[in-house]
Amino acid sequence: MSQLYDRVALIGLGLIAGSMALAMKRAGLAGEIVGTARSGETRDIALARGLCDQVFDTAADAVAGADLVVLAVPVGAMASVAAEIGPHLQAGATVTDVGSVKRAVIDAVAPHIPDGVIFIPGHPLAGTEQSGPDAGFAELFDGRYTLLIDEGVEAEPLERLATLWRGMGAHVDVMDADHHDLVLAVTSHSPHLIAYTMVGVADDLSRVTDSEVIKYSAAGFRDFTRIAASDPVMWRDVFLNNKDATLEILGRFTEELFALQRAIRTGDGDMLHDYFTRTRAIRRGIVEAGQDTGAPDFGRGPKP
Ligand SMILES: NC(=O)C1=CN([C@@H]2O[C@H](COP(=O)(O)OP(=O)(O)OC[C@H]3O[C@@H](n4cnc5c(N)ncnc54)[C@H](O)[C@@H]3O)[C@@H](O)[C@H]2O)C=CC1
Ligand SMILES: O=C(O)C(=O)Cc1ccc(O)cc1
C-alpha cells in the first residue's frame, strides 16, 4: 500500500501508539513518524525500538508540520494535550484519537481544534492488558475493528484515515459517538469492571488466594485476572468518562444477577437452564458469523 500521510505525530508512546507505528511501518503508510512522551525513558525506548524516526520533548513541537496527529494518551489526559497542541497544528491536518470513550473525548478535544484542521475521533477495538513503549506490536490490529466517529466531517479526510486503518490490518466501521459509548459499555467497559470485581472478591477471600487463585483457576477466571491486570489510569478514566452508559448497563447486569441468584436459592433449575441456553445461542451466533477467532476477546498480546 502507498504512503497516505507525509508526517504522522504520535502523542503518547504506549501500547496503541507503538502498535500503530509498527503497523504503519510494516505497510509503508507514512513518510515519517514522529512522537512525544512525557518521560525521557519512554522517548528513548521509542527511538531504540524504531517506533519513531524522531522524538520531541513536547507535544507542541511534535505536531509542527504533521499532516496526521494521533492522540494516544489516557482519556482523562486528552483535554490538556489538545489544549497544548491546538495553536501548533498545521492547516489542513487531521487530528484523530484512539480513546476508549468517544463523547467525552469529543467534548474535551473539539474546542481546541482550530478552523482548517479536521478532527476525526477513532477507537481501535484491539488491545492487551500491557502498556508502555515496549508493549506495542505490528499485528495488534489485524482482523480487528476500528470505529471512526463521523461528526459531519468531509468525505476525503475520513476515507483517508479509514484507508490508513485498513492498511494497518483493521476493518473499519463508522458510527456516532453516543452509540459507540453504549456498545462499548456492553462489550468492553462493564466486562472489565466485572473482571476487576471478581478478582477483588477472590483477593478478599484470603482462604483461596495466594497461589491457589492461579494454581486452580480455570480458563474463565484466568481471563479475569489478565483483564484485571490492565492499566489502572486508563481504566479509571474510561469509567469516569463513560459514566452514564456504564451505569445503565451495570444496573441491568445487577437486575439479571439478582434474578439468577433467586433461581439458585429457590432451586429454579428451569430458569437457569433456559437462561444458559439463550446465552449459549448468542455465543454460537457470534462464532457462526465469523466474528470470533477462538482467541480471548481483544487479547492478542503475548500471553504471560
Ligand atoms: N490498552 C488497550 O487495550 C487500549 C487502549 N485504548 C485507548 O488508547 C489510549 C492509550 O492507551 P495505551 O496505549 O494502552 O496506554 P499506555 O499507557 O500504553 O500509553 C499511554 C501514553 O500516554 C502517556 N500519558 C499518560 N498520561 C499523560 C498525560 N497526562 N499527558 C501526556 N501524556 C500522557 C504515557 O506516558 C504513555 O506514553 C487510551 O485512551 C486508551 O483508552 C484503545 C484501545 C485499546
Ligand atoms: O485486553 C483486552 O481484553 C481488551 O479488552 C483490550 C481493549 C481494551 C480497551 C479497549 O478500548 C479496547 C480493547
From TrEMBL:
Query: Which biological pathway?
Result: Amino-acid biosynthesis; L-tyrosine biosynthesis; (4-hydroxyphenyl)pyruvate from prephenate (NAD(+) route): step 1/1
Ordered alphabetically, the record's keywords are:
Amino-acid biosynthesis, Aromatic amino acid biosynthesis, NAD, Oxidoreductase, Tyrosine biosynthesis
Q: What is the enzyme's class at the highest EC level?
A: oxidoreductase
Question: By its UniProt entry, which Gene3D superfamilies does this protein fall under?
Answer: 6-phosphogluconate dehydrogenase C-terminal like domain, NAD(P)-binding Rossmann-like Domain
Q: Which InterPro entries does the entry mention?
A: 6-PGluconate_DH-like_C_sf, NAD(P)-bd_dom_sf, PDH_C, PDH_N, Preph/Arog_dehydrog, Prephen_DH
Catalytic activities: prephenate + NAD(+) = 3-(4-hydroxyphenyl)pyruvate + CO2 + NADH
Q: Which SUPFAM superfamilies match?
A: 6-phosphogluconate dehydrogenase C-terminal domain-like (SSF48179), NAD(P)-binding Rossmann-fold domains (SSF51735)
Q: EC number(s) per UniProt?
A: 1.3.1.12
A GO biological-process term: tyrosine biosynthetic process
Q: Which residues form the Prephenate/arogenate dehydrogenase domain?
A: 6-294
Gene Ontology MF, one: NAD+ binding
Q: Which residues form a coiled coil?
A: none
Specify the domain of life of the species encoding this protein: Bacteria
Q: Which family does it belong to?
A: Belongs to the prephenate/arogenate dehydrogenase family.
Name the record gives this protein:
prephenate dehydrogenase
